[in-house]
Specification:
3-stranded antiparallel beta sheet, 132 residues, 35% strand, mainly beta, 0% helix, globular
């Protein structure tokens, strides 16, 4: 079984119109470029070559100043973008008194409940246009 990857798909960037802001915001969806038997690796998924956050456009090669990733389908999965490793981490489970746990190593993405492939994952990444 191969290791799964993900793709950052841009649907919009802001500011729209006059571009005189000090930040740029990229908005889009994340899809999983994998077959159902591809597996999760502890620590997160790398992006498919050419579809990483740093490929979104101008200033995206910098460290983001804000990151939001969420399931729009209400799957129960929680997603975290690890800025240091540039990997997408996936968490599931948890309850009212316990924190969600990262998917275990070698979990087949197609075998999760619900299937990660049916989730709609949205992102918002904000980058500074100033010097860093």
């Amino acid at each position: 079984m191969a290791t799964a990857t993900c793709k950052f798909n841009i649907t919009n960037k802001a500011p729209l119109g006059i571009d005189d802001q000090d930040i740029v915001t990229y908005v889009g969806t994340i899809t999983f470029a994998a077959v159902s038997t591809d597996t999760y690796v502890t620590g997160g998924l790398l992006a498919l070559s050419g579809f990483a956050a740093l490929n979104l456009g101008p200033y995206a090669d910098r460290t983001p100043i804000a990151v939001q990733i969420a399931s729009l389908a209400g799957s129960g999965f929680q997603y975290l973008y690890n800025v240091a490793t540039k990997k997408l981490m996936i968490f599931g489970g948890g309850g009212s008194a316990t924190a969600p746990a990262e998917l275990t190593n070698a979990t087949q993405l197609g075998a999760t409940t619900p299937s990660i492939f049916t989730d709609v994952v949205a992102f918002e990444l904000v980058f500074s246009k100033g010097t860093q």
